[in-house]
Design goal:
This protein is mainly alpha-helical. The protein has six helices and no strands.
């Protein structure tokens, strides 16, 4: 099990989480143990992050294609018409407006993805706060609730901050899960 833990701590991926879970099962870990549920949470976070990142990249690519299509359609309209003057201007203007709306619609998919990712980060911060609270109670029983909350919010706060990039949030979430899982595994004297 130690090898699987080291692999997860050094290279956190859904595969290394899976391998650690398999090793924990083989070692006789029961689902009631403190660190067990953390594996499920980090695995679900990492797989959902991977799936949504792929969806975002696809939406971004589609939006880029739409932007390129605007120029192509506008050029086609200009080359395929015999119109001149006001009629040509009206055709270009209406075509440009409709193409711009198409591009704006495509960009909404990327914005929707960002909203979905925000929800994933908020959910993770919810779970992590509770896990770290319980661990803090075990390790620092003398802390009052206000001080415990203040310290935890310093650690978890960036996950709830819109000014922090998604990449930083994802890395912090995985790191906080790694620390918890590592603690519980090592605390069990693996």
């Amino acid at each position: 099990m130690r090898h699987a833990l080291v692999a997860f701590l050094s290279q956190p991926t859904p595969d290394t989480v899976w391998a650690l879970r398999r090793a924990m099962l083989a070692a006789g870990w029961e689902s009631e143990r403190e660190g067990w549920g953390l594996l499920t949470e980090v695995y679900l976070f990492m797989t959902e992050l991977a799936a949504k990142t792929t969806a975002r990249e696809y939406s971004h690519f589609a939006a880029q294609l739409d932007v390129g299509a605007v120029g192509g359609v506008a050029l086609q309209d200009l080359l395929g018409t015999e119109e001149r003057g006001a009629a040509l201007w009206r055709r270009i203007l209406l075509g440009g407006i409709s193409e711009t709306l198409m591009v704006m619609a495509a960009r909404q998919y990327v914005k929707a993805w960002e909203g979905e990712m925000g929800s994933l980060y908020w959910q993770s911060s919810w779970h992590l706060y509770a896990h770290w609270w319980r661990l803090s109670e075990q390790l620092q029983a003398e802390l009052g609730a206000e001080e415990r909350d203040r310290l935890l919010m310093e650690m978890i706060g960036p996950l709830r901050d819109d000014g922090v990039s998604g990449t930083v949030k994802a890395a912090l979430i995985v790191r906080l899960y790694q620390l918890l899982i590592g603690y519980y595994c090592l605390h069990e004297d693996i």
